[in-house]
Design the sequence.
């Protein structure tokens, strides 16, 4: 991640987590999501089958706040962000999520909450997944 012209965060092999916090999210969702992501079997085993988790491979996580994931583009041409959590509650859940990942034993780097950043990643796969706590709770 580059912010204000200088490097801010970096991780090696692992996952980039773009985290959008919704206005109805709470601590239970943050904890569930951290556990789910740490245990997702999305890395190849010796046979090439996606069978290993971030914990299994000793991978790292880069967590970037991304309220625009909550954009509703169903009407008109301007996205609505009314379903995204407001700044202070979103920051609290973002920080809780990061601490939950660390509590599971993962190395975690973060972006700068709410800042404009240039985020670069190398996506091997391609494997991109959407996890939605609204469908779980």
Sequence:
């Amino acid at each position: 991640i580059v912010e204000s012209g200088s490097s801010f965060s970096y991780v090696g092999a692992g996952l980039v987590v773009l985290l959008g916090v919704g206005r109805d999210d709470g601590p239970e969702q943050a904890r569930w999501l951290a556990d789910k992501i740490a245990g997702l079997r999305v890395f190849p085993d010796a046979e090439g089958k996606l069978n290993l988790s971030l914990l299994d491979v000793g991978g790292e996580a880069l967590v970037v706040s991304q309220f625009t994931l909550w954009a509703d583009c169903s009407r008109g041409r301007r996205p609505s962000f009314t379903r995204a959590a407001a700044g202070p509650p979103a920051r609290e859940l973002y920080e809780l999520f990061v601490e939950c990942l660390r509590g599971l034993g993962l190395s975690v780097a973060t972006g700068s909450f709410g800042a404009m950043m240039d985020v670069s990643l190398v996506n091997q796969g391609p494997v991109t997944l959407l996890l939605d706590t609204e469908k779980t709770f």
